[in-house]
């Protein structure tokens, strides 16, 4: 038996170098914190609201009293796992949305993405705070390029990753199957005051779009993909991560330009290790230089408490 330290291995000429496990942890920012967790729930602060949602991995005991949890503004109840229905219960009537903001890394400029938190069905709040570790990373990759790279954001949802990329200097193509999600993304773009930045909106099945782009000979310098476990395209096309991700990665490789900068894949709510996405990414990107890093995205309770794992990822950088 042995412990595996974060290691870097090189297989020159065939595959990018590999660095894993890489545990990327956020402790939040002024508009977001994980306040407490335990007994299968988490208590978070999103802007002006404190929100309680189920969290199957919080096996431990909460720090705060039940009264403090109960005083939260909104509770999502009735669903034990990500796939089942539940409903929001509010302490007093509140609107469906509220303002949020996230500041780009200082090295990239003074920009701030402004967007709406939103009480959506299936417990989500309109964005995934753990993704900030990736937002900061690809913002720096784009900024350092000193050109206007073309970035593709697949399964782009409410657009925060697209706006971070655009504010860092990219020309962005944002793809999502849901007209409603793209409508919310456009609201966020307006809120951020960046209507003039180049973001192209595509309502399409991600797989169909990528296959079409390959046939057209299109190329991108960066690709972000954050696919759900299961989803549907606008015409009922079925997305099942275990069935379709290998083909998706093969097509994404064909879309990468000769001097591409990065590819960033995350996955959540699936029964798999980051080794699965790591080996798939290494296979899909064989022949490229650079480094693939793989691991988990973590959120630490504010004040340095416990750590929750939210998702797994593999990301490649030419300059890593
Ligand atoms: C949970 S979100 C991804 C999170 C997002 N990348 C972020 O960081 O906020 C999953 C998105 O995938 C979209 N989706 C599901 N199936 C799809 C498909 N077949 N093609 C394109 N988008 C799809 C959904 O509409 C949803 O917006």
From TrEMBL:
Phosphoprotein found in the keyword field: no
Domain of life the protein comes from: Bacteria
InterPro entries in alphabetical order: Glyco_hydro_b, SAM-dep_methyl-trfase, SAM-dependent_MTases_sf
Entry-linked SUPFAM superfamilies: S-adenosyl-L-methionine-dependent methyltransferases (SSF53335)
Enzyme class: transferase
Domain spans labelled S-adenosylmethionine-dependent methyltransferase: 110-276
Gene Ontology molecular-function annotations: methyltransferase activity
Entry-linked Pfam families: Methyltrans_SAM
EC number(s) given by UniProt: 2.1.1.191
Cited Gene3D superfamilies: Golgi alpha-mannosidase II, Vaccinia Virus protein VP39
GO BP: methylation
Keywords: Methyltransferase, S-adenosyl-L-methionine, Transferase
PANTHER family hit by this protein: SAM-DEPENDENT METHYLTRANSFERASE
Entry protein name: 23S rRNA (Cytosine1962-C5)-methyltransferase
Species annotation: Kaistia dalseonensis
């Amino acid at each position: 038996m042995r412990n595996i330290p974060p290691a870097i291995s090189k297989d020159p000429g065939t595959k990018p170098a590999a660095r894993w496990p890489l545990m990327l942890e956020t402790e939040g920012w002024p508009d977001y914190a994980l306040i407490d967790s335990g007994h299968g729930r988490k208590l978070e602060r999103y802007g002006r609201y404190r929100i309680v949602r189920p969290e199957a991995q919080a096996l431990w005991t909460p720090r705060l009293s039940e009264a403090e949890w109960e005083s939260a503004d909104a509770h999502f109840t009735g669903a034990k796992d990500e796939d089942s229905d539940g409903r929001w219960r509010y302490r007093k009537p509140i609107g469906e949305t509220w303002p949020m903001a996230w500041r780009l890394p200082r090295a990239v400029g003074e920009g701030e993405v402004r967007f709406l938190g939103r009480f959506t069905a299936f417990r989500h709040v309109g964005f995934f705070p753990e993704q900030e570790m990736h937002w900061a990373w690809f913002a720096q990759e784009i900024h350092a390029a000193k050109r206007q790279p073309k970035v593709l954001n697949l399964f782009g949802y409410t657009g925060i990753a697209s706006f971070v990329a655009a504010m860092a200097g990219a020309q962005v193509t944002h793809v999502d199957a849901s007209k409603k999600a793209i409508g919310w993304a456009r609201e966020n773009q307006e809120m951020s005051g960046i209507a003039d930045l180049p973001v192209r909106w595509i309502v399409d099945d991600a797989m169909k779009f990528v296959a079409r782009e390959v046939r057209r000979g299109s190329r991108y310098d960066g690709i972000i993909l954050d696919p759900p476990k299961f989803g549907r395209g606008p015409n009922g096309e079925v997305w099942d991560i275990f069935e379709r991700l290998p083909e998706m990665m093969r097509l994404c490789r064909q879309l990468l330009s000769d001097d591409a900068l990065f590819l960033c894949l995350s996955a959540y709510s699936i029964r798999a290790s980051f080794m699965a996405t790591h080996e798939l990414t290494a296979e899909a990107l064989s022949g490229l230089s650079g480094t693939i890093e793989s691991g988990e995205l973590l959120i630490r309770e504010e004040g340095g408490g416990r750590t929750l794992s939210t998702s797994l990822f593999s990301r490649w950088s030419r300059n890593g």
